[in-house]
Hints:
Elements: E1 3-4, E2 7-9, H1 10-19, E3 22-25, H2 35-47, E4 54-58, E5 68-69, E6 84-88, H3 90-100, E7 106-109, E8 115-123, H4 124-127, H5 134-137, E9 138-142, E10 146-149, E11 154-158, H6 162-168, E12 170-172, H7 180-185, H8 190-205, E13 208-214, H9 220-230, H10 239-248, H11 251-257, H12 263-274, H13 285-303, H14 316-319, H15 324-347, H16 362-372, H17 379-394, H18 403-418, H19 427-431, H20 438-441, H21 448-458, H22 473-478, E14 482-485, H23 489-494, H24 499-503, E15 508-511, H25 513-519, H26 524-535, H27 539-547, H28 553-557, H29 561-580
Parallel strand pairs: 3-6, 4-13
Antiparallel strand pairs: 1-13, 2-13, 3-5, 4-6, 7-8, 8-9, 8-12, 10-11, 14-15
Amino acid sequence: xxxxxxxxxxxxxxxxxxxxxxxxxxxxxxxxxxxxxxxxxxxxxxxxxxxxxxxxxxxxxxxxxxxxxxxxxxxxxxxxxxxxxxxxxxxxxxxxxxxxxxxxxxxxxxxxxxxxxxxxxxxxxxxxxxxxxxxxxxxxxxxxxxxxxxxxxxxxxxxxxxxxxxxxxxxxxxxxxxxxxxxxxxxxxxxxxxxxxxxxxxxxxxxxxxxxxxxxxxxxxxxxxxxxxxxxxxxxxxxxxxxxxxxxxxxxxxxxxxxxxxxxxxxxxxxxxxxxxxxxxxxxxxxxxxxxxxxxxxxxxxxxxxxxxxxxxxxxxxxxxxxxxxxxxxxxxxxxxxxxxxxxxxxxxxxxxxxxxxxxxxxxxxxxxxxxxxxxxxxxxxxxxxxxxxxxxxxxxxxxxxxxxxxxxxxxxxxxxxxxxxxxxxxxxxxxxxxxxxxxxxxxxxxxxxxxxxxxxxxxxxxxxxxxxxxxxxxxxxxxxxxxxxxxxxxxxxxxxxxxxxxxxxxxxxxxxxxxxxxxxxxxxxxxxxxxxxxxxxxxxxxxxxxxxxxxxxxxxxxxxxxxxxxxxxxxxxxxxxxxxxxxxxxxxxxxxxxxxxxxxxxxxxxxxxxx
Length: 612
C-alpha cells in the first residue's frame, strides 16, 4: 500500500465533488448532519481553523471494485467515472458542497431530527469586526431565505433575493467560490464590500484541507484498518459495509442479472426469515459473513491436494477476500442452518437472546450443521454436539478472541461427532473446566455459565410451582419466567446470610411471576404453605415440583439455609458434570462459604421479592 498526504484547496474539493471526480463508496452511510453542526463547520472554515483530514482512495484498483455513488446534493450525469473515492470526510464535504455551491440549499435536520432545508448567510458588518465575531455572523435561515414566526404568518427577515440580501448586509455563502465580486460590486457600501472581500472572501478562497491519498494498490483490509484509525469521530467501518460495495461492483453479476447485487437487501431478506426465531434476533451481519468465510475456506482446504493447504479462517482479512460467488454458494444453506440452530437451542431451553449464553457460538454451530448435513440430526452425533455446546458455555470459552476457536470447532467437531475413526476430542471439549466454587461467583446473567445452568434447570423437567406447567418454549413467555431467589433476599438479610451465598445461582431458580409474588419476602416454610393453599395441592406434590429444580425440599421447609446451600450446590455440580461429560472438582469445604475477595456488591443482580 502506498499513500501521499497532499494539501488541496477547498475550492478543488468542491469542483471534484460537483464534477463527479470524487464520489463515495457504496458502503458509506447516508448524509445526516444537523443544521447547527453545518453552521459550525462553516464558522471553522471562515475562521481559517483546521477541520481535519479527508481520506481518498484512487480508483482503478484490481483488488477493490467498490460500487461508487455520488455525493448527495450534486448534479452529476449518471455513469460519470470517479477518479477517487471519499473514505473519510463524507459528512464534512457533503455539507460544504451543498452550502457553498449551486443555490446553497442544504437538506438537513434540526436537533430533533426533523427534516428541513437551510441556507447560510454571513452578516457582513459583524464578520469584518474580526475572527471572534464570525460565530455570531454566520446565520442559518430557511431555504427560501425568508424567516417567519407565529406559525409562518409573520415575516421576521427576508433575504430571498440579491437586492434584499445586499440591503440587509447578508452575504450568501454559496457565492464565496462563485460570483462573489459581482454581488459585492452592486453593494452600495463600497468600504464594507472592500473590507469583506479582503477579510473574508480572499482568505477563505485559499483555505486548505489535508488529505490522506491511498494509491490503487491498497487492499480492502488496509482500507478498513486505515479507515478505523482515521475515522475516530465516526462509526467504525465493518467488513459487511466493505463487501456491500465490493459485491455491488461485481461486473459478472451485473451482466447476468442486469442489476447490481445489494448485500444489504439480501441481509434484510435473511433477517425476515429469522424474524420468527427470537433467539436469532441478536445475530449480526458480520456473524453471518464469518460463517460464510468458515465454509468457504473449509471447502478450499479440503479441495487442495498440495503439501500446505490454505487455512480455514474466520478472520476479518479473510472475510474481506470473499467473492460474491462464495457468498451466494453458502447464503441459502446457512440460512437453513441458523434456523436449525434456533431449534437446537430451544431443545436446550434457550428461547431468546436474554438467556443465550454466547451469541457468537451460533457461528460455529451453524457452520458445523452445514458441514455435517443430515448427520447432525442423528441421535449419536447430536448427543456429542450437545456435549460440545455445553462445554463451550460452562467452560466459558467464547468470551475472548474466538476466531481461532471457531476454526478448531469446524475442523474437529464434525468428525468427532460422527464417530469417525481416529477423530480426536475437540479442543473445546478438552479445554472446558468448571469447579464447584464457580457456583458462588455466578450471580448475574452477564455470565455465560449462569445462563447455561439456568437453561439446564429448565431442561431438568422443572415445572412451575403454582400451576404445575412445564417451563417449555410455549409456557416460558406466558408465565413470565425469570430467575428469582429461593431463600428471599429479605429473609436472607434478616438472618445475616452473606451476600455471596445469597446472590449465588445456588440460591436462585426459574419460576413464574405469579409464584414469585406468592413467595414475596417470606421464609420458605411460610411461602410453601401459601403455595399449597393457593394452588390447592398437597405437600408431597409440591415437594416433587421443588425437587425438580434440584432444591432439597426438606431443608427448604426447615428454613435451613446452610444445609440447603451445600446440598443444592452438590446437585448443581452433578448437573454440570452430566452436561459436560467430565468431573467438576469439589474445591469448597462442606458447610463453608467461599471467601471471595473479588466479590462486588455492584455485581448483584437485583431481582425483587414481589409481595402480592
